[in-house]
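Escalated from tier 1: zinc ion holo job.
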Amino acid sequence: MHRDIFPRPENGGKSSFLEFCKNCAILIPVLEGGINGIYHKGSLLAAVKKGDEISWQSFYDMYKPLILLKGSDLRLNQTEKEELVQLVMLSFFNTSQTFCYDKSKGRFRDYLKRIIHNKACDLMRKRHDGEISVEDIPLTVEKMLAEGENRWEEEWKNHVLKQALEDLRSAVSPLVYQAFSMLSLEGMSGKEVAATLGITANAVYVYKHEALNKLKTLIAEVDG
Amino acid sequence: MNFHISIPELDSYRNCDCSSLKRIYCRLHLLLCKKCEAKLSSLKESDEFITSIRKNLKNDEV
Ligand SMILES: [Zn+2]
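Tier 2 regenerated the structure:
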């Protein structure tokens, strides 16, 4: 079992796709989250929070649906929604193919929301059709986004949960993850899981609660 | 009471995933111990959490 992975020393301690396992000191591939040549352990949101380098493509895949959701709240047409995605992307990646989140900007979810709000205002100013006066645009945008706040919160919660589940795989041993997954996610009985994994039913429940507690911590961490 | 039943043990008890001897022991203990009775009730929160995870994963498949 490979845990507590060390970065390669010859890589100057920087994250790489081949890293040393602390237990057996052999090189193993670390591929989770690695897209477009940028590799980071765990979920993208955890990497954003740590201030790791994030690739354009992984960011786009992850946040496009959330930005589109905001576009729907603003009643933008499909072309405008796509433009909103591009404008938000450009503000994160204006000079580079990658970005590192500056933690002094506060919670990433609030920062992302602020960027979307600003870019939506730009978009509505550009489109200005006389329906709303230019001065009223920021307030109108804020009001429309507030109406969809519950949906955004729900989507964000799902996003965080998905990211935390991804992180859970590397945060607990494979056996603990498997027992949790089979019992809680796949709905197998404790006896079935025990027989499949060759462990006692008691151990299945111990592992389930170990994973659940870790998952709760990870959720607090990635969303904190 | 000096000895209590752990959360995983209570979880396996309520899902009938423990031995009959353990079941009897848990039943008797729960009759006498308010602390473990409360722990057993708190497992409902875990159930709700798991249900929300499963719902989330199911929505992704659709
Ligand atoms: Zn007790």
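The helical segments of chain B are 7-14, 20-32, 34-61.
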